[in-house]
Amino acid sequence: MTRGPAVVADGVGKRYRRWGRTRAFGTLKSAFLGRGLSEALSPSETVDALTDVSFFVERGETFGVIGANGSGKSTLLKLVAGIFKPTAGRLSVDGKVSALIELGAGFHPEISGRENVVINGVMLGLSRKEIERKLPEIVAFAGLEDFMDQPVKTYSSGMYVRLGFAVAVHVDPDILVVDEVLAVGDEAFSRRCLDTIGEFRSRGKTIFFVSHALGLVEELCDRVLYLSHGRVKGVGEAREMLAVYRLDVAAGEGERLAAETEKAQEDLRADVAPAISVEGVAASPPGETGPAESRPRRWGDRSAVITGVRLRAADGAERYSFVSGESVTVEIDAEPSRPLSDFVFGVGVFTPEDVCLHGSNTDVDGHIPERFDAPATVRLTLPRCDLGAGSYLLDVAIHSRRGTPFDYWRGACRFHVESPSRETGLWRPERVWGFAGGIRLSGP
Predict the structure, then answer these.
(1) Beta strands 277-280 and 297-300: pairing type?
(2) What are the residues facing 62 on neighbouring strands?
């Protein structure tokens, strides 16, 4: 029998008591005085951290949660980890959970790291024998061989997290819940954590991941939940949800700056759009065929708009079929809605399965924006398009240097590559074979 999703949330809500001066200790006393526990708290004395949150996480999926501080991310992770229970709705978590949510990771400051590992491991479901067997691996992973017998109150915050993460991943959970821990620790440890997460993914483990490092979220996560003020703002593929989030952050910052002066207010209203537009494209772009659901999507605040995308061969002819090794030029027509001095043009090549083969932009390649105040054409030429045989999709975009999307066109063009040779794979690099010693081959 096939098991269902690893995590399912259906209308989940979490309400906390707001501790104030007037009723800090009134709940139990009020009950004894006859008012009853259900009447002890008025709506003004509570705060809803989460409201009507619904989503699901498939087994083996790396699921990200993003949002501003106070949006309910950590509360949601604590619900998934079983630390809290929801006030409303239903939350189903199927599998053994290991959570690393706070820097202390449940350690007692007065006892040694070694003793804390044992206690923490028992709390996460390991037997004493299992802990003793795994202890050398845990210590080596954390890199704390010289500190394991010291009280953890002498540890730095990075050492806390290293040890906590080492315990969490070595209990071999079905679901790993991680909250912001990769931001702490040196480069070597961060890389070790990423390698471990990659290994977890390859083994079909489910990862529930929260981070303000948006690049890391995009790199690791299959899908992303965007929370805003305790409510679901969106659930979808990582790039799309991150674009929505960046636009909202830009809009909020614009409102803050607009309040400083009347003049800046009008300027910033023009500069920052209040919401994102995600829309289906009515007609297939050049070279694209297929059902409506496979057509590209677009999002952005339309500070600038892509009005056309074409592929050209070396002779200037518009084409969507090439032989591997040919020159390919991507031609982008664009128009600003207002004069811009902060803009970046980007191009990405993807497989139909959404694997990124290459992505670059004008900023990465050293082109500093100066002005964009009228319709324009931007060209990117690949002198040798050394892709293997197959079909590919092209993403094109205009965004700010901070990443705020003006117009992101996903799958703007589909093109095909033929290869005259018999090698396999998506890339055809130049190569030279060499031979020495007792070996002989004939050929080119």
Answers:
(1) antiparallel
(2) 207
Residue 244 vs residues 223, 240, 298, 364: alpha-carbon distances, Å: 13, 6, 12, 22
Tell me the one-letter amino acid at 188: A
Could you give the CA distance from residue 14 to residue 20 in angstroms, rounded to a whole number?
19
Q: Helices marked H in 144-237 — which ranges?
A: 157-170, 187-202, 214-220
Say how many CA atoms lie within 13 Å of 176 toward its Cβ. 29
What is the tens place of the pLDDT at every residue in 350-364?
A: 998 888 899 999 999
Long-range CB contacts (within 8 A, 24+) of 282-286:
285/309, 285/412, 285/413, 285/414, 286/310, 286/311, 286/318, 286/320, 286/413
Q: CA angle, corner 281, sides to 275 and 284, nearest 5? A: 160
Strand partners, 407: 398
Q: Give yes or no for residue 309 having a pLDDT over 80.
A: yes
Using CA atoms, how far apart are residues 271 and 282, in angstroms rounded to an integer? 27
This model's pTM is above 0.85: no
- Domains of the chain by residue range: 298-433
Q: Length of the chain, please?
A: 444
CATH superfamily assigned to domain 298-433 = abc- transporter (atp binding component) like domain (2.70.50.60)
Tokens of residue 35, six digits: 């008012």
Burial 405-439 (b: 16+ CB within 10 A, else e): bbbbbbbbbbbebebeeeeeeeebeeeeeeeeeee
Average confidence score pLDDT of the chain: 80
> Which residue type sits at 240?
E
Instruction: Tell me the backbone φ, ψ of residue 263, rounded to 5 degrees.
Output: -65, -45
